[in-house]
Each structure stands twice: as structure tokens, then as C-alpha cells.
Amino acid sequence: MTVLLVGLGAAAAALGSRVAAVLFVGAAVAGAMGSLLPAAATWTGALAAGLVRPGVSPRRLALPALGAAAVLAAASSTNSAAVLGLWVLGTGTAFLSRGQDPRSRRWALLLCVADLPLAAAVVGGAADAGFESWPQGLGTIGSVGLLAAAALRAPLVPGAGGASMEAGLLVVRAQAVTLVLIAAGTGSRGFAEAMVAVGAAGFLCGGLVGKDSTRDGIQEISLVALASASSFLGWTPGGWEWGALAAGTLIHLLRVSAGRGSAGALGAGMLRGAGLGLPFLPVVVAQLEGLLGEREWVAAVVALGLLGGLAARARTSTSIEEPAGGKSGAMNRLLRGGWVALAGAASLWAATLALPSSLGGDAASWPPVWAVGIVAGLGAIGARFPNLAPRRAGSREPVRSLPSVPRLVDVLDRIAVSRVLEIALVCLLLAAAGLWVAGLVRGFL
Amino acid sequence: MVGLLGVDAGLVWLIAGVWTVRAISGASTGVAWGVACLAAGLRWGTISLGDVEVATRLAGPTLQTGALALRIGMAVVFGAALIDEARIAGLRSDSRAEQAAAIVALVALVALFGVAGPQEPFAAALGRWAAGTAVLVGVVLGTGRTMSRVPAWVPTIPAVAGLVVSVLAT
Fold first, then answer.
1. pLDDT in tens, A365-379
2. Pick from A269, A272, A366: which is nearest to B8 by CB?
3. Among A265, A424, B66, B144, which has the highest number of CB atoms less than 10 A from its own CB?
4. Is A367 close to B9, i.e. CB distance below 8 A?
């Protein structure tokens, strides 16, 4: 049902109708009631609905939404003969959404490269345990492949600018989340422990990235990996990947809708503040609380990773990117205010992130209503008396990048010419078709 | 402020609150101070200041309890946090919000490291917090000019090292 509704939403978007938003909301609701990766389905639908905004043509969402439907279909498939085909279809839609500038070509090339570990895992799993054992038959090596594919995808979530932004947020994000959730549930216990450490390290490294959208994407995927692996191990209450994705969805929408006006400035402050107002905060707290009861070194590593990620986020964030194509109309301002209010509520009250269910939220220790009231009251006082606010706004520390990054970009630019990109996509399609034919020949067994 | 009142997950509220004010103003956030707060929490297995207070009321101040290696680790973390606060010089800022954040940061260090948890009468405990904070304010103001030359990343290294030592010693 979720896949169908996202697909119908894509069709409505292709016709330029804003009814697409209603269909995406329906997909999110259906996803929440489903049994297979409900968090991924729900928050992909919700993000798609949020991206239907005034002043931006819904047609921009048509192809990415179709890709998201293909990814969700791949995630719900239990036969690996069909998985790769649906997956590559998703990658293909993102690929077609790219621009023609060097940055977009680089992004498309990396997208194809990021599919290689997954293709290897799917083919290896099929050869090892048959087609119908997907994803349980993956084993630890296959799970490592999925995690590698997710790690390669995480920096690509924001897209390459322009029309690829929606493709990144809908297709690439859904792919990365799906990969992480499947990997967490199919690997060994040792793999899950390693995944907790990788998630914490990813959150730290993501915070060091200077570009806001890339930083948000990496930190969201890292938190999902950390939450899903730690709940698999029984270290934290189950379901916090739901909260991580809810927080990530709010952050993406807050960033995309950021602009001029008081709500825009408040939203920008919340994104840059790395503390109060940041919807990731309750998820970080839930993870820390759960892991404190485990081995000391695990708690220390995760605590340093999460704390470092928040600190780096506050240090390196430079500017809120301009919203893609959005106009500053009354409806946009209203929407922006809504996202700011929702994100603020989610950051102050952990249970908000668990809505509509009580996944994890009830189990999270979180300050009582009076404490939230104090924070909100102090915020209101601060807004009433601007002289209390710091006067050096904008004097941030300079962002430094590794010296090897420009060289790597040069190399990628030389490789990522149109012909190479087309060959890469065709190779992936041939691999998917080959697997499907092999499955057909063997009766999908 | 909410964190200092001892609510659940209060250490994270403390860190988030102080970092929020500093991040929005563009000032250095104080990573070593944040690591120190969390290290004290890890030492007692909690992220609530209220729980740390209960633990230190029973066992004694964080800096004075546990094995020698543990105390050394905690002392290194505490010293690094103090250097970081002196370096940031939030008390000398022309912004009231940054000054308040600096005071909260120093009160937190006193409560987490320097004194035992409060017992009846609470006025005595508040007096210890105030006296400890006054001492730290003096240290921070007195060394601020020298410490301002310390690069931002320097205090983080001993803070993390102290945390590692204390984890290994636990």
C-alpha cells in the first residue's frame, strides 16, 4: 500500500498537482501501520509530503518519488532476484535527476559506485543461500557490504544542488536508511557492536563537514545506524531509529524551508546551535542513557562520538543554504513557522519523536513539563530583550577542509564524464537483469 | 539551569544549553568542558546531575574518590575543562547570555567534581557550590589572559585522555 501511494503521489506530482502531498501523507500513514521497515516507509512519505511546498513545482518531485517507491519496493521484497532490479531503478531515477555540471556528474558517479557493495552482497547472498532467503541469508559479510553501501551513500543524501536535491532527499536517503536497517537486523552480534562504534564515529565525522545539508544527512544516517544496532543488541529500547528518522525529517524540512524572516532566523539558529532546538538531541540522550549500563569503553566511545558530533556541528556550520526555488510567500512563512515549532517541540520533549506510537519515547528519561516550560520561558524572555543576546553573531571559526579533498575532486571530475556515467548505470542495470533472469531460470528459488 | 536542577538527562541539558548560547554567538563552544561533564557522568554511570549528587553524597567528591588512576584521570579532565573556560573567557564577554553560560559552566564543574552531594541543611550545600564557583571564577579570570593564547583544540586532548584513563581505571 505504501509503495502504491508513493507511486500515485509521483504520478500526481508529474501532473503538477499538489494532491501529491495528500497521497504522500497517506503513504506515511500506511507505512506506519505496515510491518516491514515502517520507519523508513513512514519518514520517506512524510519527507516527500513536506517537500511539496508553495512556490515550487510539484513536478520536481515526480521522478524522485518514483525512485523512492522503487526503493521501498526493493526493501519489502523477500526475493533477492527482484531486489537489485528495483534498487537500480531507484538509483536510475536519481541519476536522471542530476544536472550537467561537474558537481552533479561527480554525485551521479559516486551514486553508481555506492551501489557496488550492495550488488556484491545481493549476488553473494543469492549464490550462498538462494534467492528466497533475502535478507536473512546475507550473513555478516553481506551485512558489512550493506553498511559500506550506506556509508558511501550518506554524504550523497543532499544531492548535488538544483533538481537533484529532491532525488537525494527522497531516493538516496531512503536507500541509505533501508541499507542500515537491514544490515542491523541481519548481522552477527559482533557486527552490531561494530556498527554502534561506526554510527558514533559517523556522527562525529558528519559534524565536521562544513556543508549544512551534507552534515545533516551523514549525522542522520549515523544516528539511525547507532540506534538500530544498539536496540538489536538490547542496549537501548527498540524503535529509536524511528525517532532518529523523525528528527532527521524535521531537520531536512527546517533546512529546506529556511529563509528570511523571524521564523527563518530561528530555524537557522536551531540548526546551528547544536543543542536546544535540535531534534537530534533526544535521540542522542536515549542512546547515551541506554549505553551507560553497558561496558565502560562502549559508553565512552559512543559518548565521545555523539558529543564530538554536536560540538563539531556548532563549530563548523557556516551558512544556511538558500531554499531551492522557494518564494517567500505567506504560506511559506507559515510552513516555516510550523517546522520550527515542531522541531522545537521535538527537541524539548523526547516523546514527540515517537509519535504516533510510544516507540522508545516512554522509556526515555526526559525532563518534566515544568523544565520544558523554563526553557521556553527563558527563550521568550531572550526574544523580548534582544540586548541579552550575543552581539557577535556570524563571527564563526573558519572551516578547514582536508588538503586531499580538492585532489580527489579533481580525479573524480576527470572520470565522471557523461559516457562513463552511462556505462556505469548500464552495467548496474545488466547486473540486475542478469540476477532477475537467473532467478527466473531457477524458479526464483 | 534545568540541568543544574537535577532533572533526568540533566548533563546533556547543561551541555546543550551552554553550547547553544555559545554556538549562536559564534564563540568557542568549550569541547573540553563538555567532555568533562560527560566524564563525570560516566564515572558514576549516569547522565543526570541529580544522580551524580546522590552518588557523591554517599561516596565523596568525584575528585577525591576511587582508585589513584581514576582520580588522576578525573583531575586531568577537570583541569582541561578549567583551561578551556579560561581560554574562552565567557565572563569577560560583553554579552549577558555568554556571561551566564560561563557561570553555569563553572557551577557545573563545582557540582560535578569539587564537592560532595547536598545533605541537610541544603543552605550549607549551596554555600559550598557558591564558594567553589567563586574560587573557579577567580582562577578563570586570573589566568584568562595567559590561556587566551592556547589554541581551541589543545584542552580537548587532555580531556579525552583523562576520560580514557578513568574508563580504563574503572
1. 566 666 667 767 766
2. A366
3. A424
4. yes
Q: Show the 3-state SS of A205-218.
A: HHHHCCCHHHHHHH
Give the whole-angstrom CA distance, residue A173 versus residue B117.
Answer: 47
The residue of chain B with its CA nearest to that of A311 is B31
Hey, how many other C-beta atoms are within 10 angstroms of the C-beta on B76? 21
A259 touches A332 (CB < 8 A): yes
B 140-169 residues with CB < 8 A to A: 152, 160, 163-164, 167
Alpha helices in chain B (DSSP H): 10-25, 31-44, 49-59, 68-88, 96-109, 122-147, 156-169
Asked if A400 reaches chain B (Cβ–Cβ under 8 Å), the answer is: no
| Residue A225: band (very low, low, confident or very high) from pLDDT cuts 50, 70, 90 | very high
Q: Tell how far CA A337 is from the center of its chain.
A: 22
Q: Which residues, at least 6 apart from A280, have a Cβ–Cβ distance to it below 8 Å?
A: A219, A220, A223, A244, A247, A248, A251, A310, A347
- A281 interfacial to chain B (CB closer than 8 Å): yes
Query: Which phi-psi region, left, alpha or beta, contains residue B9 (left: φ > 0; alpha: ψ -120 to 50)?
Result: left
Q: Residue B93 is which amino acid?
A: S
In contact, A41 and A59? CB cutoff 8 Å = no
* Whether the bond into A135 is cis, omega within 30 of 0: yes
B93 touches chain A (CB under 8 A): yes
Q: Chain B contacts of A284, Cβ < 8 Å?
A: 12
First to last CA, chain A: 25
pLDDT band at A325 (very low <50, low <70, confident <90, very high): very low
A390 touches chain B (CB under 8 A): yes
- Answer yes or no: are the C-beta atoms of A193 and A301 closer than 8 Å: no
**Predicted model pTM:** 0.84
Which cell numbers in the block locate residue A105?
556528474
C-beta of residue A217 within 8 angstroms of C-beta of residue A187: no
Cell 553524597 -> residue? B57
Is the ipTM here above 0.85?
Answer: no
Question: Using an 8 Å Cβ cutoff, are B56 and B46 in contact?
Answer: no
**Bond into B151 cis (ω within 30):** no
